[in-house]
Known about the structure:
The protein is mostly helical. It is built from 12 helices and no strands.
Amino acid sequence: MTRLRALASFISGAVIGTLGGLIGLGGAEFRLPLLVGAFRFAVLDAVILNKAMSLVVVAAALPFRAGAVPLGLVAANGTVILNLLAGSLLGAWIGAGWAMRMDAARLHRVIALLLVLIAGALLFGHGMAGGAAGGGGSPLTGLALVAAGTAAGFAIGVVASILGVAGGELLIPTLVLLYGVDVKLAGSLSLAISLPTMIAGFSRYARDRSLSVLARNRGFVLLMAAGSLAGAFIGGRLLGVVPESVLLPVLSAILLLSAVKMWRH
């Protein structure tokens, strides 16, 4: 790896991490198109690398947030975590299997469509979650809530596994709207759900090729992951400087442009 490529990997990771930190995400949605477009990784290799870096960011983010959302409060909502995990773990395993069986052209287009979905969730779902930030209670109870949570978890697990993302932009609105939890708590709960979900998807990839991909690109992964962590920290400190009314449409537009490029790649 050349010095220029090493520097570019760290800086791009830092920029993406900062954007993610500003809105409470890991930034993997923005990292994936960059891995494919700018760094010229094959699409499945890019998904695997993205998932590995996302794992690092998500694992660090949960304790980073402990000052605002105590881990004891997260543990107290264990039933919510387990309900969504019941679907997301299976979805992550199946999604990874689908990704590995697709040819490159189809995988590019599936990812492009999912980026459009993420852009919509980021723009509209985040706004809905913000509007319900007080935690108004769940609209469902009993078995209906369990079934809805499992189904939502499965769908989110599939999307997260195919894209190599944490899925926070889908999990947070689901937690707020379906379970009625506070949006700040939802951010930490989404991390607690994302971590085992991503491990499940990654272990599925590991059965085939992910370990060799990481071994070949370990320096690149470590540098970009380090940049992402540094950026996430900076973004968290800058929280509130850029209003969401400006930031979210801009980031959604970036994802839509990335989707177009992935579709036409």
